[in-house]
Amino acid sequence: MECQLTGIVRQKPLNGDVLGVEAQYRKKKMYIKAKKGVVLATGGFGADVVMRSKYDPRLTSEVPTTNVATATGEAIVYAEDLGADVSGMDFIQLLVACNFFTKQYGSLANLGIDAAIFVNTNGKRFVPEDGRRDVLAEAVLKQPQKVLLWMADDTCQKRFNPEITEAIIKDGYSFRADTLEDLAKI
Question: What is the pTM of this model?
Answer without folding.
Answer: 0.69
